[in-house]
Structure formats: structure tokens, C-alpha cells
Design goal:
Shape: globular
Structural class: alpha+beta
Radius of gyration: 32 Å
Oligomer: single chain
Distance between the termini: 82 Å
Number of helices: 9
Mean pLDDT: 74
Largest sheet: 7 strands, antiparallel
Number of strands: 29
Low-confidence stretches: 57-65, 90-130, 205-217, 258-272, 458-474, 544-549
Length: 565
Amino acid sequence: MQSDNLRQKLKQDFPQMPPEIHNIIGQEVNRQLTSSPRRSSAKQRLLFFILAAALLLGTVAFAGLQFYQLYVENEGTYGRKIHVEGNVGRDEADSSEASDTTNSGAAGTSDAGRTDTNGSGATDTDGARSWLQFHYIPEGMGLDYNGFKLHFADSSWAISVFQIPLEADTSTESLVLSENYVTFSEELEIGNHQAVYLTLQNTSDTPTGLSENSAPGARQKIYMLCPEAETVLEAVASPEVSKDELIKVLENIELTATHKSPADQNTADETGISLIEAAVNLFKALLPEPESKDSPVQTSFTAEEIAQMPSTGEPVSVPCGADTANRQNDVTNDITAEVIRVQVADDLSLLEVPAYIPSWWSDVTDENGKLKPNEISYIRRGDGVRTLDEVLKTEFIPQKLVFVTVAYTNTGSETLKNICFFITPCAIAEKNGSYSLYTDSTELRSDLYNHRATPGNTATENSGGQNDAAAGNSGGLTCDYSHFTGAASFSMPYFAPHGGTQRHGGNYITELKPQETIFIHAAAIINADELPYLFLNLNAVTGNDYYETFSQRYVDIRSDISFSQ
């Protein structure tokens, strides 16, 4: 009864299959049923099921029926190419059909029952792609608001599912997906869908070997072919998710129709760019480039320039975003900032407002309340195809809390409101005969390691006391990047008090009357051996006119750190 209802529904929705195609499919199904038993591949079985289903139903919009198959090609030792080929099995059908119609003289019969496509894999009357619903969510996980991600009970990321639409055309190869840094791959069948399971090397902060949609930290994924929706699903999972759970999630995913936006429907030129996008690009090209009033940010300094930088106790004029009497979101030059005090601690006891402590600092201390050491790995990058990334050395560096007090004063004659401030750690260290600016701790670590690994160089200063010269340990090899598990970074996520209105973030001073001063406390966690290079940047405005050299406000706090340790 159910098959009769399905057959009736298809007769209403789709035109009749051409008899020539029906005969071809029937011959192929009969051949596979009567041939001697042999082991067949997943893609061969899938193709047989598609053909048999088409014969059983006896009706189909044949031009819209796309046969796809997925297979994996090894590239080197650690590279994989996932191929999705379209129109599999169609060439023989099309050529046989053309031959039959030519011999019979029935011109145009081969087009009977076909529905024109719009070149995007969906029929003109369809105009839809497919998206998904989760019918199985593992225990302890929940669905994100965006509808395609699952998270653990603590809100940490678990699984993401993305779709890669297949563009239906007459070409043999519709899609090739490349993955590098693959340590294991396996072809699977998931609910009668072809799929490939991959594990990926996971040593870098950046998504090495992962697609741009993949979440950082992922080391396993599955590509699953969904020919009925002309889509490949890409499921990326955190290391905490088991392979079996990931497969079960995909077994219980339902693809549901979502309509294209109007910009996608018959509004693209031959390059695939929508007319609206083309118009925007044209206007952008016609507009003149904004003139910059200053040069890019200076990243290299002489010893004389560093000596002239202000230190603790010296007021510095700081351009700040603020609401002035003229307008909201204005820029004022009436604010001075002065670093009053710098303290260094090995715990979080200096933080007086627990509510302002960032959530990712929740596990940075041990059972005695002391900051845990930071585990740092120095890594030489492989090409992801013939070689993997190689960890040259791993070491443990003590972490320190750097707590600063900065006084902000309104030196002008009008009251300022919602004043934005930034207090950002950075490092300036000697490199190649000059002094280089580091705004990222990982860059500094790599250069410090490479300095030690170079023959003839000795170990750098080490306030943590746990570093050795790397030469000998790494055979003199230099690293390409470093990776660590601790909370240390060149940012100050703790600051107090919080100000501003609801439309602002917490790093705002609600109001400063003329000549009034407010004290801001801020804190960062820094690797102990980076403290001898630490500066603060008090720049609070970005943009063409302000994110440049003249607006940077570097304060040298190195002597205060040495004194407070």
C-alpha cells in the first residue's frame, strides 16, 4: 500500500520516464541480479540501488536525476583528495538513448519527460537547496541557536555540520575536496550514503589541514554524500566526540528544504556573480581610495627610540573614542593615561572583582591556588602531504599575573561620556640588530626558540628558570610556530571597573568631568620568560587615521616588572 501511494505521488509530481531509459535501467538491474556473486564496492552498490529504485518507481524527472559517487584518492602519505563525480552511469544511457531515437527516426523523443535545470543543481520549479534537522543528539550535548552545531553541557563546541552544494552539470568530475595532514582515512556507508572518515593532525592553533568552515581544534571529520539533495555534508567533531557517536548523529540527520534567497534566483551573470554584487563592486572601484594621514604601524625600533618611550609615572596623551558635546562616537584628544603601578603575582589574589574574571581562567590555578605552568611545544611545519608537523621540543614555563593600574584624566573643559580605553600588552625584543614589536605571544616564543636553536647563540634570559638552550635538543632545527595550552596571551581580559551603557562593552568609562581622574585596574597572564620584554600599548582608537604610528602609545614597564618580582 505504501509503495502504491508513493507511485501515485510521483506520477502526479513528475513526468513519465522515457521508455528507452526504462529499458536501459531494466537491462542493467537484470544483469547485476543474474551475474555471478562477487564483492562489490560501496559506490557500485549505491549505483545499483539508485537504478533499481528508478525502475521500481517507473517515473522520474530523468534530466534532474543526478547519479553521484564518492571515492578517495591518496596524495603522498598524508594527503587525501575526496572526489565526487556527477552523472555516473548517465553517459551510457544518453548515448544509447540517442542511438535508439536516431534509428527510429523519432526526433525529440529523448527529451520527453525532462525538466530543464537552472545550472545550480535544482530545477527551475524547485528553487531550493536542502538543510538539516538533528533527530539524534548524544546525551550531554545540546543544539546551538544556529541549528547546525552541537555543544557540550559546558557550552564548549562538539560537532558542526556544513553543506557543500553539488553543481549538477554534464562534466564527469563535479567536486574535489582536498585534505592534508590526514593520519587516518576510511570509506564508510552511513545510512546508505557514501562517506569518508578522516582523522587529522592537531598540533597548531590554526586549523591546519582543515577547511575554512572547520572549527579550530577539530581533529576528525566525515564527508557524507547526499545525492538526493545534491549536497555533501561535512561534519567536523571535537576530539572528545567518539567516532561511533559522530556516525550515529549523521545517520539521524534529515535534510529539509530551504529556499534560495532572491539574489540567487536568475540574477547571476556568466561569472556566477549576482547583479547586486557586481553593482557593489563597480561602485567600490569608482570610489577613490581613502587617504591615510600617517604611515603603517611601526614594527621595528632603534635603541634610541625605545629610550624615548614613556615609562611608569609619565602621563601620556591618548586619543580616545567618546561621546562629546558635538556628537556620539566622536574622537577626543583631551584624555591622558598614566601607568601608576605594575604588580606581578603567581596567583589571582590581586583580582578584587571575581565577576570580571574571564571564564577561560577558571582552571588556570592548581589545588594551592597558584598559576599552573604553561606547556609549550615548538613545531616545524610539514607540507601535510609527505610530512606532518613535527614537535621539536616541549617545555613548561611558569605563568605570571601582571596587574596594572592606569589613571585616566580628562584634561579638557567639557564632560566626556562613554570613553573607550584599551590596555594591551606587547613585547619589544632584539632581532637582527634592531628591536622588533610583537603583538602576539606565539610569534615571540618562536623567535626566542629559534635564537636559542641557532648555533653560536646561548640561552636567553629566563626568569622562569626552566629553559635550556635548544641547540642539541632539536639538532639545531628552527621552528615555524609554537603552540601552548595555558592562558598566557598578549591581552588583558580582566579590567575593573566596567562602564558605558548597554550599547558598549565593559572597557568604557561612563563619564569624566573636566579635570576628573578615574583609576582602571587591568590584568593579563604572561609567560614568565616574556616579562623582560613587556610593554603596554594604550592606544584606544583604530581606523585609517588612528591605527597608525602616531596613535600608538607604548609604555615601557620592564623596570617595574623586575622590581616587583
